[in-house]
Amino acid sequence: xxxxxxxxxxxxxxxxxxxxxxxxxxxxxxxxxxxxxxxxxxxxxxxxxxxxxxxxxxxxxxxxxxxxxxxxxxxxxxxxxxxxxxxxxxxxxxxxxxxxxxxxxxxxxxxxxxxxxxxxxxxxxxxxxxxxxxxxxxxxxxxxxxxxxxxxxxxxxxxxxxxxxxxxxxxxxxxxxxxxxxxxxxxxxxxxxxxxxxxxxxxxxxxxxxxxxxxxxxxxxxxxxxxxxxxxxxxxxxxxxxxxxxxxxxxxxxxxxxxxxxxxxxxxxxxxxxxxxxxxxxxxxxxxxxxxxxxxxxxxxxxxxxxxxxxxxxxxxxxxxxxxxxxxxxxxxxxxxxxxxxxxxxxxxxxxxxxxxxxxxxxxxxxxxxxxx
Length: 373
Description:
Layout: H1 8-29, H2 36-48, E1 53-57, H3 60-70, E2 78-82, H4 88-95, E3 99-103, H5 113-119, E4 124-127, H6 139-149, E5 152-156, E6 164-167, E7 170-173, E8 180-184, E9 198-202, H7 205-215, E10 219-221, E11 224-225, H8 236-246, H9 249-267, E12 289-292, H10 296-305, H11 335-343, E13 344-347, H12 355-372
Parallel strand pairs: 2-3, 2-4, 4-5, 5-8
Antiparallel strand pairs: 1-9, 6-7, 8-9, 10-11, 12-13
Helix pairs in contact: 1-8, 2-8, 3-4, 3-7, 9-12
């Protein structure tokens, strides 16, 4: 049986007639930049996000940079980031001459809200919680902390689009809760295009206008530049693909949850595996299905030997990456992030998985632990 981490080909085959029709419409019009499908998609995404403004851009990293630019932070202002995450948020923080302040991970892979206040100083201006692997951070606690210290909140929602956050105020879509949300439409994301793409999300109309200006060279009217901006566009072909696939996002997420449920059922009796935490405050859309085991490296090799792919997100916490090392951060400073980096393993999960595929993978995992016991 052929197993892949994310089966983009099978998903395309299932939706081919609709996607091809949408792309042909763009090809026939030849409006490859700022064609009508871009606004149609952003309007559809806004409706999906219960009315929040959606501003498309070139990719998820651009979305984070543009979000920080829109908040008018100054060089050497500090931004709180999770230690256990991808480099994008730290990357744009450095590019804008801001200073990252790293915080350890919690049990759910997201930032440990109990440790955030320890990182706040008089120079701290923003916090970027990353909603890891498909479910949100503890946003009520983060918002309370932000209000107390007058901080902006930028949600990195690249992995959790479609997840619902539950609080006393009711259910809200991930990415719509802080001052700005960002997301990515990279081909492996839950809502994915056929190249690069991203978006910023906000409930604030004036902030939405500013985000759109920054993404378009700082202009509202062509050749009249009101602020410093960048060139970050979602092209029309990608917007056409995304508009088509957005109709299926809830179904995509349901299919991923079904596969995750089957993984949970099959692996729950293996004492040497820790299954993903499912938070009560958030639904889970399972961008990744991430287990933890002290035998991670041996298990990954065993799976590879049996032609089953797996991935490690993330093998080295950001504070210890050569590009982001800081003298204040010594080994042992982020114990949970360091432990996760040595133990996490992502198993294949995607919209086209069936029971036979999950069983095949789980059979191999069960066999590995039986031989190692």
